[in-house]
């Protein structure tokens, strides 16, 4: 792959936003690539769609993007679409069939690349997923077949965790260099770290600045180090950026980074408290003195990362989405439709929890509204909203935190960034513009 003269700017366009946000409304001048999400492998290793309108939506997206000079990849899989990846790559015959079916779709829709979003090789992911200890080695074998099947101009990418793929022993594989030869790039999914939990934690940590996170492997900087140390080229890493956050019932004063009771449901989380994973934390000459800090002036002095105020709603016993309060104290609570309590940045603005402002230098800023106070978590370099009246904490990213991540990606030499998803931004594109400005685009 030819090295670009500047970082690549990319974004996901999911099929479920077609009615509210037609592809023709995308400002393609802001994006080099758009990933259409998702096509889903079935038990016969053919690609299906979650929505009957998805094929037509993809055709419209490709037409509009190509007219503007932007390229399109089809993303295959996703959290609920990864059930049949394992058998699809398990044998030489299946790999050939799967690759051939992908090629057919690639040609039908005049695509420019394929993105594999397998969540996840070697472990379960969503309920009902099929998986095997041989997934990672079989995945590599499949990618070689796919590389030989697609046109030489086609780009192949993948969305991955902040740790390398798991091997047959349940640990991250120590050497990913062969994957670096078949992928044009991979996207580090630096989001959903804590989701909607009580006590609340950051959605997308830039780094573990307080050196005390219970999930030290789950940050942008740790992910870059882990993949580079495993032999994957830094120049083929893309940082995933979220345009969404999570709402949780809480009255915490700060975000949690250390929570001894919390353990993941899978083996790789058990390693995140071990020295084996702590050694992947940023440090030394690789990072130098890359800048901490922010311009918001509302740091909560979170120097210990301990679990907040421990007041109502913070029992610390049951991580996961919790019912949101009606309106206990006269504030304006944020209402979410998503069962995971996920909320897009644009929805926070539309519901008045965030209000557009301007800094002294004229830069776009968003401050708390509707009874919400914007605070800053210096351990993760992300903002959060707190409303005592509504009994809610909202962990999210905004123009400031995304600019920090974008500048980080550029400064350390990553290939670029990819936003999930384009529709989560404001109509004015305030998130992507902050990212572009930070990368001096």
TrEMBL record:
<dbReference type="GO" id="GO:0005576">
    <property type="term" value="C:extracellular region"/>
</dbReference>
<keyword id="KW-0624">Polysaccharide degradation</keyword>
<feature type="region of interest" description="Disordered">
    <location>
        <begin position="270"/>
        <end position="337"/>
    </location>
</feature>
<comment type="similarity">
    <text>Belongs to the glycosyl hydrolase 18 family.</text>
</comment>
<dbReference type="InterPro" id="IPR011583">
    <property type="entry name" value="Chitinase_II/V-like_cat"/>
</dbReference>
<keyword id="KW-0146">Chitin degradation</keyword>
<dbReference type="InterPro" id="IPR001579">
    <property type="entry name" value="Glyco_hydro_18_chit_AS"/>
</dbReference>
<dbReference type="GO" id="GO:0000272">
    <property type="term" value="P:polysaccharide catabolic process"/>
</dbReference>
<dbReference type="InterPro" id="IPR050314">
    <property type="entry name" value="Glycosyl_Hydrlase_18"/>
</dbReference>
<dbReference type="GO" id="GO:0006032">
    <property type="term" value="P:chitin catabolic process"/>
</dbReference>
<dbReference type="InterPro" id="IPR001223">
    <property type="entry name" value="Glyco_hydro18_cat"/>
</dbReference>
<keyword id="KW-0378">Hydrolase</keyword>
<keyword id="KW-0119">Carbohydrate metabolism</keyword>
<feature type="compositionally biased region" description="Basic and acidic residues">
    <location>
        <begin position="270"/>
        <end position="282"/>
    </location>
</feature>
<protein>
    <recommendedName>
        <fullName>GH18 domain-containing protein</fullName>
    </recommendedName>
</protein>
<dbReference type="GO" id="GO:0008843">
    <property type="term" value="F:endochitinase activity"/>
</dbReference>
<dbReference type="InterPro" id="IPR029070">
    <property type="entry name" value="Chitinase_insertion_sf"/>
</dbReference>
<dbReference type="GO" id="GO:0008061">
    <property type="term" value="F:chitin binding"/>
</dbReference>
<keyword id="KW-0326">Glycosidase</keyword>
<feature type="domain" description="GH18">
    <location>
        <begin position="7"/>
        <end position="441"/>
    </location>
</feature>
<dbReference type="Pfam" id="PF00704">
    <property type="entry name" value="Glyco_hydro_18"/>
</dbReference>
<dbReference type="InterPro" id="IPR017853">
    <property type="entry name" value="GH"/>
</dbReference>
């Amino acid at each position: 792959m030819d090295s670009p003269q500047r970082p690549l700017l990319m974004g996901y366009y999911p099929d479920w936003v077609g009615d509210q946000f037609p592809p023709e409304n995308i400002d393609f001048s802001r994006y080099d690539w758009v990933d259409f999400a998702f096509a889903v492998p079935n038990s016969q290793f053919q690609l299906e769609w979650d929505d009957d309108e998805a094929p037509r939506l993809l055709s419209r997206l490709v037409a509009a993007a190509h007219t503007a000079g932007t390229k399109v990849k089809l993303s295959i899989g996703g959290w609920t679409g990864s059930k049949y990846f394992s058998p699809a790559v398990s044998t030489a015959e299946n790999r050939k069939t799967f690759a051939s079916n992908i090629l057919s779709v690639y040609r039908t829709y005049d695509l420019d690349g394929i993105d594999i979003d397998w969540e996840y090789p070697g472990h379960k992911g969503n309920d009902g997923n099929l998986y095997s200890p041989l997934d990672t080695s079989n995945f590599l074998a499949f990618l070689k077949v796919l590389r030989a099947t697609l046109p030489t101009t086609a780009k192949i990418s993948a969305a991955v965790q902040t740790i390398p793929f798991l091997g047959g022993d349940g640990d991250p594989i120590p050497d990913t260099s062969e994957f670096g030869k078949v992928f044009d790039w991979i996207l580090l999914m630096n989001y959903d770290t804590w989701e909607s939990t009580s006590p609340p934690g950051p959605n997308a940590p830039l780094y573990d600045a307080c050196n005390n996170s219970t999930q030290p492997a789950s940050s942008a900087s740790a992910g870059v180090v882990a993949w580079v140390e495993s032999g994957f080229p830094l120049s083929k890493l893309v940082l995933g950026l979220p345009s969404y956050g999570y709402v949780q019932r809480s009255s915490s004063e700060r975000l949690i980074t250390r929570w001894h009771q919390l353990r993941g449901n899978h083996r790789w989380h058990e390693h995140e408290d071990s020295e084996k994973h702590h050694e992947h934390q940023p440090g030394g000459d690789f990072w130098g003195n890359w800048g901490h800090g922010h311009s918001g002036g509302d740091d909560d002095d979170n120097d210990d990362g301990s679990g907040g105020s421990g007041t109502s709603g913070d029992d610390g016993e049951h991580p996961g989405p919790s019912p949101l309060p009606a309106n206990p104290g006269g504030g304006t609570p944020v209402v979410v439709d998503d069962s995971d309590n996920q909320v897009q940045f644009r929805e926070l603005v539309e519901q008045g929890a965030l209000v557009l402002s301007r800094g002294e230098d004229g830069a776009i800023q968003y401050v708390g509204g509707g009874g919400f106070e914007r605070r800053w978590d210096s351990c993760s370099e992300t903002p959060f909203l707190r409303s005592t009246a509504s009994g809610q904490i909202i962990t999210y990213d905004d123009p400031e935190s995304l600019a920090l991540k974008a500048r980080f990606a550029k400064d350390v030499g990553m290939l670029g960034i990819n936003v999930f998803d384009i529709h989560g931004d404001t109509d004015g594109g305030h998130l992507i513009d902050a990212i572009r400005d930070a990368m001096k685009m």
